[in-house]
Design a protein that fits this description.
388 residues; alpha+beta; Butyryl-Coa Dehydrogenase, subunit A, domain 1; Butyryl-CoA Dehydrogenase, subunit A, domain 2; Butyryl-CoA Dehydrogenase, subunit A, domain 3; 3 domains; 4-stranded antiparallel beta sheet; 11 helices; globular; binds flavin-adenine dinucleotide
Length: 388
């Protein structure tokens, strides 16, 4: 890996993570998590908590180690390079749990939930998409209504990653069907074990470790305290989503894509030196060397983009345009890198045993989830002020 000009504590973190990954996530286990032969147990996150890695998005006053978003994203990337399933559990704890609650939660929610993030006892799934609602999120049909001191949630979410392992689903609801668009949305923290929540696993090409779920809410009755941010956030869900929610989804996809691309390049770089054809390693063939030069260069450009966004977040200067650019470029490029690596490896790039087949499936998801590439392009031109 080329030098990333990282501070000393991040270099040390990488060493800790490298030995953690070798010890706790050997390649064959990552493969079995993906195939379902060994279930990816949510208690895996407790091992990361034991290393103080689940407190990286939680301020000390709530029991965390203080916010270090760069360290959190480095951890996510390293985990994703071995298993996107494990990385997804980590992001469900630290980012969809930690960061969302730190930035949008009420004081009561912070006191109650953040210590559980730190101890590795809280996983939060994201419930935005619905059977009939993808990119057009402001059109969600899942309803929340007030009933005295209670909320009643009714509707259906689709593609809800990790719902079967989560404690809460961060659920975007329509709270005022007659209200103005974007001013009629509310986010509710729905406990997965609440009466009326029904899960059904969907079959997908990848994302097998955490699983992908259809979630139905059958008049789920919850106390008003389940409103993310408290009662005053009623009908305020769209601005909560724009300010933190979607930005986080984008950077998380880009970081996971970077991890997967790096794993694919490293595996292929090694394989090309070991595979002998016509009496010499295939890495000596010029066309193979060129493909390897291409993927290394693309990987480097992805790294620079992700590090730039991480640095902006670290300085508390988030840039939605740059984050959308990173989501677009890194996810598309990671897919391209993974497919090139598969080409270099020939038939072995298609064999489950050699991991690159899994990296390809993982990489194919990245430009779809967390907002499609087309939507990122729309965002970039709109936010940069191009007249419509
Ligand atoms: C494995 C997996 C896991 C997922 N996990 C989650 C999750 O945990 N939580 C969650 O809420 N969602 C999740 N998703 C859903 C994902 O975020 C959506 O798939 C994504 O936002 C796009 O929605 P859609 O697939 O319904 O596409 P649609 O919105 O139906 O779009 C279809 C096509 O049209 C294009 N398109 C749509 N509108 C426009 C436009 N205005 N301009 C240009 N092009 C446009 C899209 O780019 C796409 O190519 C997951 C998806 C998958 C596959």
């Amino acid at each position: 890996m080329l030098d990333r000009d990282e501070p000393e504590h991040i270099r040390m973190l990488r060493q800790t993570l490298a030995s953690f990954v070798e010890r706790e996530m050997p390649h064959d286990l990552a493969q079995r998590w993906d195939s379902g032969e060994t279930p990816l147990d949510r208690t895996f996150i407790k091992k990361l908590a034991a290393l103080d890695l689940t407190g990286l998005t939680v301020p000390a006053e709530y029991g965390g180690s203080g916010i270090d978003l760069r360290a959190c994203l480095v951890t996510l990337e390293v985990l994703a390079a071995r298993s996107t399933g494990a990385a997804t559990l980590y992001q469900m704890a630290t980012l969809f749990g930690g960061t969302h609650i730190v930035e949008m939660g009420s004081e009561e929610q912070k006191r109650k939930l953040l210590p559980r993030v730190v101890s590795g006892d809280l996983l939060v799934a994201t419930g935005l998409s619905e059977p009939d609602v993808g990119a057009d999120l402001a059109s969600v049909k899942t309803r929340v209504r007030r009933d005295g001191d209670n909320l009643v949630v009714a509707g259906a979410k689709r593609w809800c990653t990790g719902a079967g392992k989560a404690d809460l689903i961060w659920t975007l609801c329509n709270s005022d069907p007659d209200g103005a668009r974007h001013r009629n949305l509310t986010i509710v923290l729905v406990p997965v074990d609440a009466p009326g929540v029904v899960l059904e696993e969907q079959k997908t090409m990848g994302n097998h470790g955490p699983g992908t779920y259809d979630v139905t809410f059958q008049d789920v009755t919850l106390p008003v305290s389940a409103l993310l941010g408290g009662e005053h956030c009623w009908n305020n869900g769209w601005s909560q989503l724009l300010n933190t929610g979607l930005d986080l989804e984008r950077i998380v996809s880009a970081v996971q894509a970077l991890g997967v691309a790096r794993a694919a390049v490293e595996a292929t770089w090694q394989y090309a030196q070991e595979r002998v054809q016509f009496g010499k390693p295939i890495c000596t063939i010029q066309s193979i060397r060129h493909m390897l030069a291409d993927v290394q260069t693309k990987l480097h450009s992805c790294t620079i983009m992700v590090d730039r966004v991480a640095a902006l977040l670290e300085r508390n200067e988030p840039s939605p345009v740059e984050t959308a650019m990173a989501k677009l470029y890194v996810c598309e490029t990671a897919r391209n890198i993974a497919l090139t690596c598969q080409t270099v490896m020939g038939a072995y790039g298609y064999a489950v045993e050699y991991n690159v087949e899994r990296y390809v499936r993982d990489a194919l998801l990245m430009p779809i989830a967390g907002g499609s590439s087309a939507i990122m392009k729309n965002n970039i031109t709109n936010w940069m002020g191009l007249p419509r």
